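Journal club prep, notes for RB
We'll compare a predicted complex against what the paper describes. Inputs for the nicotinamide-adenine-dinucleotide case:
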Amino acid sequence: MNASLPTYLVNEHLDPWRVFLEQVERVTPHLGALERWVESLKQPKRILIVDVPVRMDDGSFAHFEGYRIHHSLARGPGKGGIRYHPQVSLPEVMALAAWMSVKNAAVNLPYGGAKGGIRVDPKALSMAELERMTRRYASELNLVIGPDKDIPAPDVNTNEQVMAWFMDTYSMNQGRTATGIVTGKPLAIGGSFGRRDATGRGVFVVAAEAARRAGVDLRGARVVLQGFGNVGAAAARCFHEAGARIIAVQDHSGQVHHERGIDPAALARHAAASASGVSGYADASALSADEFWSLDCEFLVPAALEGQITAANAGRISARMVVEGANGPTTPAADDILDERGVLVVPDVIANAGGVIVSYFEWVQDIASFFWSEDEVNERLDHIIRDAFIAIWDLARDKGVSLRTATFIVGCTRILEAMELRGLYP
Ligand code: NAD
């Protein structure tokens, strides 16, 4: 495999990108005549690596490595989030951009796939340093972003405030206010109702539909969640409101467990007040990571980082279904183990599409300068994601493939059809 690697990947830790390539291998036999275009999915269209120098509060300078990657622009402008994390790497951002291409096509949004990130521990920065880093990064990206070129959004450790700085910086550089440059903005500057909870809400809508089809009752169902950030906490609220029990939560600080159920609102208050995460929550007991992955439950929702469910722990997972809130949480080897053990996997490329669907709504509202009510947003989100999931479910049953391969069939077919119609330039 190394022989065919582009030189910029030599010496990189390749896991997420390898996972994506393996997923493309698995979909290839189902692409028919479009297979002749499939090589173009196996490399990003464009990679931008930027140095982000930041003046620190103590007067010193720090340099961070930033990325923005366009995986495919065949179906429209690039769309995908920005991650701030110490483990951000080129192959990780490549994989995240590629999953955005497949996801956006799978739910039929008029977008290509993109992703960005900075290798940084944002928790070690002051607010002023975070703002300066964001503004410099946004300026460095000027070459490749724009409301009709590439529209970033929040991801791990980035939020509405970061999007507001990003939008302001781009607007200053352009000499006009450009609300459509990012999504996930605060409401006061062109954000959309419903965006904050959209990914978690979509995870729940898809999980509920999968449960209905698999004969799992939501009321009293046990939910185990990894990650209690934007995606995990919103999904937890939706499950809780539907009568399911959140029996365990893991985040970077540790694991908490209560078989009768944890109130997600109280847990969120604890995590915000302690500023250190879910551990130490008084109405639950602590649990080891090993015990966490072995808990009996109906829904296991990974909503943190990629590569969490691997051959090392898949054999111990005792869930009826895994619903992927995170991007890339399950490796192909783990997919096979879960499949053999009868655990249904609802893949990221459909399960967490709620965020980008409402990002699309936000972008449409910004372009039209006409804003929708929260009910309209949620109704349209539920409708799009449920219909897309049902089509994928039916395709998986017809073809006898996993839900992941079925989602890749829908997404990759749309991307490659667009490429074929546009033709190869020149
Ligand atoms: P976030 O920064 O709001 O939350 C991340 C959560 O993961 C936190 O609770 C953190 O404590 C936890 N975490 C970090 N490292 C961990 C570890 N080693 N073990 C256990 N938990 C850990 O991020 P988010 O926006 O909620 O994103 C979570 C996942 O969902 C990512 O994979 C992201 O790409 C994906 N996603 C996010 C969106 C979105 O709209 N924000 C949309 C689609 C997919």
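Talking point for the session: The pocket of nicotinamide-adenine-dinucleotide is lined by residues 154-157, 199, 226-232, 250-252, 277, 303-305, 325-327, 352, 355 (CB under 6 Å).
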